[in-house]
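Student: Please help interpret what follows.
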Amino acid sequence: MKHGSLFSGIGGFDLAAEWMGWENVFHCEWNDFGKRVLSYYWPNAISYNDITKTNFTIHRGGIDILTGGFPCQPYSAAGKRWGKDDERHLWPEMLRAIREIQPRWVVGENVFGITNWNGGLVFDEVQADLEAEGYEVQAYVLPACAVNAPHRRDRVWFVAHATSQPSKRLRPEQRELSNAQQGQLGGNGSEVGNRAATHAHEPGRTEQHGAGEPGRTGHAAGHGGGDWHDFPTQSPVCSRDDGVSSRLDGITFSKWRNESIKAAGNAVVPQVVYQIFQAIQQYEHEKENAKHSRT
């Protein structure tokens, strides 16, 4: 599978694609810190900067799966929630890239706040736009704690598959789905999302990522969501009740340390992405096997 990422950050989607054994063809990120991380770990991938100034037609028909955590600040409960009036509302740019690239699969990510900003306007718009482009799409809420991470971190995942068949849309009351509810929905996008959700919520899941590189997988070495018990949930010095004022954080550490903390806060959890990717690959294999059995 050939993978391309938009709003790539420090490469959460790219790392999960690497775990799958897929090829990272390109990434697109304009933050200097993120670009340095991406170029270090994936030097052979094409590196794009500003999505608004990038023409992706060179990749048309050459990308199997396109991913992107389009900026969440316009819809996040932690921000001013300006939504479509925010200059960081960049879903239209991601949609343009989808039109230009025409991948078989699209996986988008955003904060839970996108489901209730302005009555779910953008949440519904993302799905409607994808359907208009010929995709069947289903949205799921998968938190980081589903892979045993020591924090909840609810995120909305849009899983879309190119198909000529009409898809089933989520009703507002279905936006946060239990596993049982997910199992009742049919179709390609929903089937893949259901498998990912089931895998992610399996208790005691401890699949490991081989030898790995400590700097890339950290204490959560198992990309299946295994060993998180040593993962630090708070800094041992900064912004804690040891007398160090949070206002000193920017002075105590270098700019790059601050950028690293910010990047980690904005990043997707690759262990969750890995579950979605596994479900997509399983679906692809089963479809290919069914095709061969018919012939």
Summary: The radius of gyration is 19 Å. The chain has one domain: 2-208+261-294. Residues 191 and 200 are 14 Å apart (CA to CA). The longest helix spans residues 270-294.
